[in-house]
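Q: For a teaching session next week I want to show students how multiple molecules come together into a single three-dimensional assembly. I've collected the sequence lines for a complex. Could you give me the predicted structure tokens for the whole thing so I can convert them for display?
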Amino acid sequence: MSNATLSAKRPSSLKGATLPKWFSWAVAAGSIALGLGISTAAGLGSNIQWALIAALLFVLGSYGISARVEGRRQAKDRVATSLIWVAFLLAVIPLASLIYATVKRGVKVLDGYFLSHSMGVIADTEPGGGIYHAILGTLEQVGIATVISVPIGVLTAIYLVEYGRGKLAKAITFFVDVMTGIPSIVAGLFILSLWIIILGMGYSGFAGSMALSILMLPVVVRSTEEMLKLVPNELREASLALGVPKWRTILKVVLPTSIGGITTGVMLAIARITGETAPLLLVVWVTNFINANPFKDPQASLPVYIYLQFANSGGQGPAYDRAWAAALVLIAFIMILNLVARGIARWKAPKTGR
Amino acid sequence: MAKRIDVSGLNAYYGSFLAVEDISMTIQPRSVTAFIGPSGCGKSTFLRTLNRMHEVTPGGRVEGKVLLDDENLYGAGIDPVAVRREVGMVFQRPNPFPTMSVYDNVAAGLRLNGSYKKSELDDVVEKSLKGANLWNEVKDRLNKPGSGLSGGQQQRLCIARAIAVEPNVLLMDEPCSALDPISTLAIEDLIGELKERFTIVIVTHNMQQAARVSDRTAFFNLAAVGQPGKLIEIDDTERIFSNPSVQATEDYISGRFG
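A: Of course. Below is the structure for the complete assembly, covering every listed component.
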């Protein structure tokens, strides 16, 4: 009975009133116009203020109109959607503006000469010079750090996932977690006191590599561990049931299945340590000359170069431009690493195609 | 090359939990033995004790004896890896190695155990795929990924992979439960052919399947959840399905439980 009356009232209960697709855009345009109008009328100068007013108007406006036309459930859906969009924009705006600022200021002095010359005979106040010595230093220091920490990290993760049971595994997991939280300056101080003060070694790129590998190790262990856990147990059992020893199973089945993810993790770890400044300042120091030997004497590196050029520039002039150009190179380097990581992950991912 | 299995007084544990209690049975060579029984009664656990895969599970341990032609698999100095080369296994869900091609999947057992010549491998791969009734379907795409095959083909690929290492015994843990009736039929036919060469033990929830493919059937049951599973009886399949000697078996087979 109730069914009959219901269907008489509402011919189709599956089809409600819907607002047209341009509705959201129209409300957005309206609220921006209104926000600008209000802030002009009230004499507010800041960009943030009118944007906040507009955002508030947009959320309230779309909720109000939608609730009236479409019903409360759709209205809530619209509010949730717009909140997610606001969150997304808030996350993207700093990133986009950072890249914009770096590119805009960085391209001024960025050219082949800049990439292929050192600061050898150039004073900080003079134009010219380049970052060849810093690129060389960063590549060597990060490369050695990677060579140190990737084997240790991957083997630790294999131990934790494939063999580790009981107290030792728990202790290792705990210390890896603690290492993740070590501030980079502390890693630098550790190497400074151990390598340079106690053992009496001099400043060198290798000392920096050791400090960087302390920072890199927990990231490699963690990401590799997660990737190895993703390998289905059935594959391990299938291999063991063929009479393959455990170590060969790990080497030939588990690692190839997860190599894409492990590579991505390693690349992200490299990207993380490439930008480290503090430990390098403590244990590698800096030089304006090309030093290709990472085991002896101070070396330059991109982050330290950026820091010192900026610190000596007073906010303008050639050194200031060089700092931005070096920052652009650093960002580009990390971005290329990320793209390479993605490429490798895609290339090595288990194939499902026919 | 098929071998006889003699089990006596076998208990299987997960940590301190006794999952399977006091099992003794004889599994004849060149025959198919089916294990039936309700879920959780320890069929799969028992099956995994026959090639020492049970101890791969954390906390898994076994007491008792499993004789493979008079050699105790749980004796001192026995290498579980060597046992698993003698006693192969096919799992419930098809699990080809996702990074490997069809060819590499079949060759995996040999290749991972040592070096073989390419021509030898070619022969083994062809023979095993033919043995698993899969050769005609995949001979043109041996270098395509194994995970690109259909579910039934993947399962036959796993059987080919298992028989490529020439085991004496083949254990199958519900090999058809993830497959459609046509693929199931293909695998059942295959089991009929394989029993000429191997001792086959199959766990199944499908009573008709047990009746169709097996020579001997073992019925497992457990008193209650949390109690260990036990072997109720093992007998010729015909007898189990027509005139079992234990009432519980008849109740289970005819659908009246408890």
